[in-house]
Amino acid sequence: MHDLEFEHLHVSPDDVAVNEVAWAADNVELTTVGIDIGSSTSHLMFARVHLQRLSTALSSRFVVVERKILWQSPILLTPYRPDYTIDVDDLAGFIGGCYAYAGIEREKVDSGAVILTGEALKRRNARAIADLFSEEAGKFVCASAGHHMECQMAAHGSGAVALSRGHNATLLNVDIGGGTTKFALIENGRILATCAVAVGGRLIALGIELALGAPLAPGDRQRVAARMARMVMGLIDLRQGGELARALLVTDPWPAELANRSIDAITFSGGVAEYLYKREKRRFGDLGSDLAEELRHLLAHRRDLAPVWDPGQGIRATVIGAAQFSVQISGNTILIADPGKLPLQNLPVLSCNFAADGEITPDAVAATVRGALTRADFEEGESPIALAFPWRGDPSHARLHAVAAGICAALPRTLQEGMPLVLLIDGDVGKSLGRVIRHEIAPTADVIAIDGVQLKEFDYVDIGNVIELTNVVPIIIKSLLFK
Questions:
Q1: pLDDT surpasses 50 at 6
Q2: Res. 478: pLDDT tops 50
Q3: What angle do CA 127, 78, 126 make, to 5 degrees?
Q4: How far is 140 from 44, CA to CA, in rounded Å?
Q5: pLDDT per residue over 155-186, tens digit each?
Q6: Between 460 and which of 17, 427, 447, 478 could a Cys-Cys bridge form, CB atoms 3.0 to 4.6 Å apart?
Q7: Is-contact 95 129, C-beta < 8 A?
Q8: Which residues does 142 contact at the CB level (< 8 Å), separation at least 6?
Q9: Which of 142, 147, 150 lies closest to 33, judged by CA?
Q10: Within 13 Å of residue 393, how many CA atoms lie on the same side as its CB?
C-alpha cells in the first residue's frame, strides 16, 4: 500500500481531530422548519441549512451556502370555524402529525419561521397560532405578512427574484392564491413595486345571486372566473384598472409612472399557478381551475404580452425556515441608552438605503423610512422595529444630523411611546449617530445604535444583554429562507 510513485502525507488521528475542530469553527448546519398558514391553505417543510463563515479575516458573519429540503407536508385547507376563528386544535394536530411523519423531534429543530397571511391573519384568534410555538420563542420567527410583504415573499419564494437576477431581466410575478392576487415588479433581482387585489380561487364577490349550500350554476361559474381573469390581466398590463378593480384593490394601485414599463417575462405562483403550468388536474370545489383556464385563454390571445416563464414554485412559494447566526459587535462604536431594556427578541428588520454616499436631507431620509414601513406593512409605533442601513462617505456632523432628524421625523409614535429606537448600521458611525439623536433631537429616545452589521429584508434580530467586561452585545440574526 506504500509503493506509491508520488510524495504523500500520512494524516494522524490528531490531525483529523484538529481539522474537524477547524471545520466546525467555520461551518454550521441547522435543521429549520417553515410553516405557512394562509387564506386557503397551510403547509410546512423541513430543511437542512449549511452556513459558512465569510473568508474575511476574523469575520464572525456566516452566510448560507447550501439548503436542502428534508420533507414537505401535504397541503391542508386552513381550518376555519364559523365564529371567525381558526381551529387551533386542528392546526396543532396537523403540525404535530407532520413532525411525526417527517421523523423529526421538536427539540431537534434549531430554528423556524411561522408566517400568517391573508384571511388567516384577520381571524380573531390569530395570536393563538404564535402561542403554539411559545416554547420555541427564541428560535422561531412568527411573522404576520400584510399584502405588500406577502407580494415580496411570493416573489422570492416562487424563484422569480432569483430568475430576474440571473437573467438581468425585468419580471412581473403574479401570485394567485385563495383570497388575493399579489403582483411584484422585479428588475435585476430587486423588487420595484407591489400591489394586490381581492381576486382568488376561493373568493366570490361579484354580485351574483348565491344561496348558502346551493350549487353555483355553470354559466355563472364561468362568468365569475372570466371577470376575475380580466381584472388580473388589467393589472398585468400595469394599468390602474376599472372601477371594480379599484374597489377590490387591497393596496394602493400601481404607480402611474409604471404604465409604459417594459417587461421581459411574466411568472405565476400560488395555487392557481399549478393549473396554469399544468402541474395539477384535480378540482377542490373552488374556482382555481376555472380561473386558470380563463387566464390561459386571455394570455394565448395577447401577442403583445411578454412571454410566460415558470419560476419553479407555485403553491409552495413560501419560506423553508429561518437561518440564524451570531455577530459580536465592538463596544467602541455602539450606544445603548438603557441597557436594562435588553434583551430584545425577534425585531423585524426594515432595510433602508439612504444613499448616504452623497448629499443627505432629512426629508429624503424620512421618506425612505416611511417607504420601508409601507413595504413591510407595518403601522409605525405599533411594535418595535429595527432600521438597517449602510453608511457611505464622510461622517460629518451635518450628515449625521440629517440622518438622525429624518429617522426621528418618520417615527414619531415610536419616540412618543418610548419604544426602543434600534439602528443597525454597516458603517462605523453607530455611537456618533446615537449621540446626535440623544443630545440634539430626541433626548428621551431609547436609542440602541449598533454598527458593523449587514442586514436585509426578511431578517429578524435578537439583541442580547451587554457583556460587561468587553461592552459588546451579542446579536442573533434570523433570516427567512426561500427555496
A1: no
A2: yes
A3: 10
A4: 14
A5: 998 999 999 999 999 999 999 988 889 999 99
A6: 478
A7: no
A8: 113, 114, 116, 129, 130, 133, 346
A9: 142
A10: 13
| Locus of grid cell 465592538 | 330
Average pLDDT, rounded, for the chain: 82
User: Which amino acid makes up residue 241?
Assistant: G
Give the Cα separation of 385 and 60 in Å (integer).
24
What is the Cα–Cα distance from 167 to 165, expressed in whole angstroms?
A: 6
**Beta-strand relationship, 420-425 and 386-389:** parallel
Q: How many CA atoms lie within 13 A of 198 on its CB side?
A: 11
Matching residue, cell 475542530: 21
Alpha-carbon gap, residue 43 to 91, rounded angstroms: 10
Contact between 176 and 291 (Cβ < 8 Å): yes
Q: How far is CA 307 from CA 264, 351, 357, in A?
A: 7, 32, 38
Q: Which of 294, 268, 315, 317 shows the shortest CA–CA distance to 77? A: 315
Q: Which residue in 483, 411, 482, 480 sits closest to 113, CA to CA? A: 480
**Centroid of chain to Cα 227:** 31
Q: Which residue has the cell 440574526?
A: 477
Q: For residues 147-163, b (16+ Cβ closer than 10 Å) or e, as one string? A: bbbbbbbbbbbbbbbbb
Looking at the DSSP bridge assignments, the partners of residue 450 are 424
pTM (2 d.p.): 0.81
Q: Helices 218-236 and 288-300 meet at what angle, rounded to 10?
A: 50
Phi and psi dihedrals of 393, rounded to 5? 90, -170
Task: Write the secondary structure of the chain as one string of H (helix), E (strand) and C (coil).
Answer: CCCCCCCCCCCCHHHHHHHHHHHHHHEEEEEEEEEEECCCEEEEEEEEEEEEECCCCCCCCEEEEEEEEEEECCCEECCEECCCEECHHHHHHHHHHHHHHHCCCHHHCCEEEEEEEHHHHHCCCCHHHHHCCHHHCCCEEEEEECHHHHHHHHHHHHCHHHHHHHHCCEEEEEEECCCCEEEEEEECCEEEEEEEECCCCCCCCCCCCCCCCCCCCHHHHHHHHHHHHHHHHHHHCCCCCCHHHHHHECCCCCCHHHCCCCCCEEEEECHHHHHHCCCCCCCCCCCHHHHHHHHHHHHHCCCCCCCEECCCCCCCCCEEEEEEEEEECCHHHCEECCHHHCCEEEEEEEECCCCCCCCCCHHHHHHHHHHHHHHCCCCCCCCCCEEEECCCCCCCHHHHHHHHHHHHHHCHHHHHCCCEEEEEECCCCHHHHHHHHHHHHCCCCEEEEEECCCCCCCEEEEECCCECCCCECEEEEEEEEEC
> Cell 456618533 belongs to which residue?
432
